[in-house]
Amino acid sequence: MSRVTDSEKRRPRGTEKRRRLTEAAARVLHEQGVERTTLADIAGAAGVPVGNVYYYFKTKDDLVKAALAEHTAHLTELTDRLDALPDPRDRLKALVGAWVGRRDIAARYGCPTGTLAVELDKRGDDALDLEVGGVMR
After folding, report:
1. CA-CA distance, 51 to 15, in Å (whole number)?
2. pLDDT-based confidence at 19, cuts 50/70/90?
3. Measured distance CA(123)–CA(121) in Å, rounded
4. Total-model pTM
5. In angstroms, what is the C-alpha Rg of the chain?
6. ∠ at Cα 131 (91, 79), nearest 5°?
7. What sign results for the dihedral spanned by CA atoms 27, 63, 133, 135?
8. CA-CA distance, 66 to 83, in Å (whole number)?
9. Quick one: residue 31, left, alpha or beta (phi over 0 = left, psi -120 to 50 = alpha)?
10. What ranges make up the beta strands (E) of 1-131?
11. Domains of the chain
12. Are 79 and 73 in contact (CB under 8 A)?
């Protein structure tokens, strides 16, 4: 008979909080921009106490990196779905459909990765510039 420790019971909740923070960071940074977004904004959007943010992410830049990873995951998921379609016309229709499905967000805030790339470029932070460049590629 195996015994589940207290730390093992807490791990899934912690993973869930990190996931919520990452998703919220991607969304809030896209909507408000890096400079105007505070850790409290992201914590509030994730439904997590602001003090808990530091448990998962030591700096705001770590949250930016997590948001970039979230954008990469979404783009990878989209391209994988498109690649699974055998007919090029179907792939093109699905791509356009994905764009149309997000047109309101894109019209209001721009391309999530593109706007983040422009803002990070203005900061002059080469490390984050390289990371966002990887997402764009």
Report:
1. 16
2. very high
3. 5
4. 0.76
5. 18
6. 10
7. negative
8. 25
9. alpha
10. none
11. 6-136 (1.10.357.10)
12. no
